[in-house]
Specification:
Elements (H helix, E strand, L loop, with lengths): L5 E2 L7 E2 L25 H12 L28 H8 L2 E5 L5 H10 L3 E7 L17 E10 L4 E6 L2 E6 H7 L14 E5 L8 H16 L7 H18 L2 H30 L4 H22 L7 H22 L1
Antiparallel strand pairs: 1-2, 2-5, 3-8, 4-5, 4-8, 5-6, 6-7
Helix pairs in contact: 2-5, 6-9, 7-8, 8-9
Length: 329
């Protein structure tokens, strides 16, 4: 895939990071609509497509998923660690200060061959036409791929692909002329692609395997599924008595986060280990399918005993981790 970076110098014209035609863009296979969870979470989805557009293999960055945990009221909101991205791809992601108009900063960084990840209001994102676009204010992260401040057009990575917005959506997403002075600036991160060597092929696999071994040694103590079972039993009466919005919020933070993490980890095992990763991938998909089944049971809004399903998921998870460790011996 061709990679370019261009910008006009003083005129505020277009600046872009990757290929110019959004219609010709093909998302990474992790976002294939045929998957159980074609989307993961806003930050990981952005990183997947941003790396993919640059010609990198984002799967290499997901060894950390062996460390997912139940965090008390939700499963880990997983993000490829910054250290892993730098070691694997020479990509540095760090917070930046949005002290000037966002279009100006985005255009300058794109002209330098970099990108920005910015938290925006999904109200202004047309790719969310089926959910929150012009109907609900929800924070989410996008990564800039191209911007034309004169025409007020932004091309961005979000969710499972690459999209464009313009006009009123551009002004709203980038906070132009409508925000109260006391409003907090958006959280923004700078993405640099020149922080070190970019690994490829077998060298990338070897480094990813080293990363996997390190993360395996830092897994949470005890069973996260036992913690989830206890928390779900406590939350279930309130959840069933609540409204649909409360269910969707809970499902996203719990079963959807768990299921999407395990599905990505299954793909990672297949990519890294090939045939040696088949047993682990199979066990992980069992967790994925059980997560979807549990979400359907929650959606029916009827009382049930969740512990048997979670005990089965725990056994599949432990079998998957054992198979990964066995493949690395």
């Amino acid at each position: 895939m061709s990679v370019t970076s261009s910008a006009s110098t003083a005129g505020g014209g277009p600046a872009r990071l990757s290929t110019p035609d959004p219609r010709g863009y093909r998302p990474h296979p992790l976002h294939d609509p045929a998957r159980n969870y074609p989307e993961t979470n806003c930050w990981s989805d952005v990183i997947i497509e941003l790396l993919h557009a640059r010609g990198y293999e984002p799967l290499a960055a997901f060894a950390h998923l062996v460390r997912i945990d139940f965090e008390g009221d939700q499963w880990t909101f997983f993000k490829p660690p910054a250290d892993d991205l730098e070691a694997l791809f020479g990509v540095d992601v760090h917070e930046m200060q949005p002290y000037r108009p966002l279009p100006t900063q985005i255009a300058e960084q794109l002209a330098l061959g970099r990108s920005m990840i910015v938290e925006v209001d999904s109200w202004f994102l047309p790719d969310l036409a089926a959910s929150s676009y012009r109907s609900e204010h929800v924070k989410t992260a996008i990564a800039a791929d191209a911007i034309d401040p004169e025409r007020q057009v932004l091309r961005y990575f979000h969710g499972p692909g690459r999209y464009e917005l313009e006009g009123e959506d551009y002004r709203g997403a980038l906070r132009l002329g409508r925000w109260a002075p006391e409003a907090l600036p958006p959280y923004a991160e700078l993405v640099r692609f020149d922080a070190g060597p970019r690994l490829e092929g077998e060298e990338l696999r070897r480094e990813s395997e080293r990363t996997l071994r390190r993360h395996l040694g830092r897994r949470p103590a005890g069973s996260p599924f036992e913690r989830f079972a206890a928390a779900l039993e406590r939350a279930l009466p309130t959840l069933l008595a609540g409204d649909l919005a409360g269910y969707h919020a809970y499902a996203f933070a719990t079963v959807r986060m768990l299921g999407s993490a395990c599905e990505v980890l299954a793909s990672y095992c297949e990519w890294l280990l090939g045939a040696r990763g088949a047993a682990a991938a199979t066990a992980l998909i069992e967790v994925v399918e059980a997560s979807k089944a549990l979400s359907f049971r929650l959606a029916r809004r009827r009382a049930f005993e969740p512990r048997p399903a979670l005990e089965g998921m725990a056994r599949s998870w432990e079998r998957a981790l054992g198979a990964i460790e066995g493949a690395l011996d």
